[in-house]
Structures
1.
Amino acid sequence: MQKKTDLGQSGEDMATEYLISEGHTILFRNFRKSFGELDIISISNDLLHCSEVKFWKESSGFHPLECFHETKRNRMRKVYFYLLKEVPAFYHLTPSFNLIHITEKKEVRFYSSIF
């Protein structure tokens, strides 16, 4: 059985490949601050995509979108604002907060602008 960190890494690898195939330029992976993290940051069509990657079992009884409670959204926004402080050149880009759901069958489901 794979460790959770190994599953997360393979999920992020699959998500990265998917985004590249959709024309995204990957800027950062695992952009961390002490209070939160953005799994993948990419650019596509003047959008700055801040993506959360979730490897999720369909049988869990609920959808990974349900993980985006107010606290999670606020942490992602806060990390995004720190990114803008570090890279002011991104100010002109419109942010898009996304979910990339990796299923048990290794399918990639992309949910754009979820909040």
Note: The chain has one domain: 1-64+95-115.
2.
Amino acid sequence: MLASKLQQTTAQNAQQKQVGTAAESVQASGRTAQSGVPVTVSKSVRSLGEGSKTTSDVDTAKVQAMREAIANGTFKVNAGAIADKLLTDASMFLGAARA
């Protein structure tokens, strides 16, 4: 059983290496894929990949401030705000599921 699991994992890893990621496909635009099929990507799709490199969804200053507060022992968790956000998200999720 262990040998078959190892073979399956090895086969999956080999398949993942062959397929690659979407980002690699975007970078490969204009080049020929391993199977010999030409790959082209529109300018709008390429611009999506470029935009993600320059912008960040993470406020690094806020993260640093939180790290310092945790290290100093002054970080306070606002349980009420977290609960409100969880309830709002759950409500939106359930509403979308019903629609």
Note: The chain has a mean pLDDT of 76.
3.
Amino acid sequence: MKKLLIASLVATLAACSTSNPDVIQRGDAQRLSTVQDATVLSVRNVTVDGSQSGAGALTGAVVGGVAGSTVGGSREGLIVGVLGAVAGAAIGNATERGVTREDAVEILLQMRNGERRAIVQAKGNETLQPGEPVIIVNTGGKTRVMRAPAATRTQ
């Protein structure tokens, strides 16, 4: 029983959203995107803090409560079950936050019109360098930066 509950916690947390530019959400497929040209000014490593949606705490509380309630008689089981639920919620919350934390990059961009923009996105397969031409793809309010195709690179 414990293994099943722990497996459900891991599956729940694994389904959380990502900001990886190489992963496109199903709802964004087959949508027309706007594309802008820019040049990379700088790239720095950052960490996107993990989420605390409550799913980890809830799942941890259930696992801890069920596990604790099996200890001793009915009174002891109730007390240990409550303590297990509280401890499980704290552990589940910390687990969710740790599992959903992402290594990312903050990219400072020079737009063609002279404006500067910055975006944070999870590290993808591409490593962008200062001075490199890129495109900014905006789909449904979500933006990602990727290396410009050779046909659109300016000299």
Note: The longest strand covers residues 34-48.
